[in-house]
Amino acid sequence: MDPTKRARVEAWLQYAGELGFTPIYRDRFSQSSESAPAPLPEISHAATTAVTLPAAAPSQAYAMAAGGAPRRAPAPSAVPAHKQSIAAPTAPLIPASPGMSLFDAAERIEGDTLPRIREDIGDCTRCKLHKARTNIVFGVGNPKAELVFVGEGPGHDEDIQGEPFVGRAGKLLTQMIEAMSLRREDVYICNVVKCRPPENRLPERDEIATCSPYLLRQLDAIRPKVVCCLGACAAQTLLQTTQGISRFRGEWMDFRGTKLIATYHPAYLLRNPPAKSEVWKDLQKVMAVLGLQPKRK
Ligand code: URA
Q: How many domains does the chain have?
């Protein structure tokens, strides 16, 4: 292995060890070697440019800004510090080492498939979320999708049905997908964590650290053209940043060689319908990359 790659892998393993999910990769290394939301408004396509975010240092990689999470985060001031699962950033982020990313350093598993990943998850008890879940919500859709949507974690309806985005926010996501002239079954939909956080709280750092390697494997197995992060949790997890989503929403970024864009979570849109126009602009950027024309009315 060349020295740069070795240094990356070592840094990854060290950090993964701190987070407690080294064994997942070690195993692999050893083997391989209600109310219908209003339609989205149509807004003309805006130019797209790729940006690079400063990465979180490994020790901060999964620390996320409470204020940046659009779905369920209470106002930061309303939550006592000891109850905040996610730390607000205190200083501008400095890359751990320029260009280095925890996920960049993770090896791809040759020939990995969605059924195999699901099998590896098994009847998971790796984190505390398993205690209250009804179903593991793995993901749904086209295993060869060009577009993958990544949400935060299952809610009540998803937990019961075992499928992501089937509740109110899910219905809005389906409308968004259809407005792009796609069907739900054309895309792939999954979440950062596969089990419902109790009371729909934000996933905690250790839960994200335990579950996100499976998300990474899902993305590697599908190899989409575009990953669209729905909300701060997905974006901050994949980009390993603590920056608030509004800082980079709608900008093209690179995720392990794949185009990634973050937009607001549909649950946020249910609370803030005017933000739909921003999301529609973001989706139009995705459509331009995928060569899609807006659905005719
Ligand atoms: N919100 C999410 O982030 N994911 C779901 O599956 C449902 C709601």
A: 1
